[in-house]
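Here is one chain, start to finish.
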Amino acid sequence: MKIAIILALVAVAVAEKLPGATPPVIAILRSNQVNPDEFGAHSSDFEAENGIVFQFSGSEGAAGGANMVGSFSYPQEDGSLAEVKFVANENGYQPESSLLPVAPAFPHPIPQFVLDQIEFARLEDEAKAREERN
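Its structure:
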């Protein structure tokens, strides 16, 4: 239920940014929550009339934390659908989405000024090591 309330508030906040606009009433089409059972299993499934969808399921982790898998999506201003899948567990929050930035492929070309600085640092280290031996 908390998630449904948060998503509804976000929708209203976005609508309020429109000049002279009256916040729309957005129907909640689906809102199912299963509270943790004796084994820690829990889930939530939410969908709003404006296209926001959020669902997850989880269980208690070995160390007492929660392990979850889920997804959420929402329509973007250009009409496309933003989609995010995630896992949250002892290894942290791990989202997957085409919306997330991707690091450049490695190995990538290293700029000459960086190579020069690395060489300078190496020479300094060698000089310091020679001084310490004498």
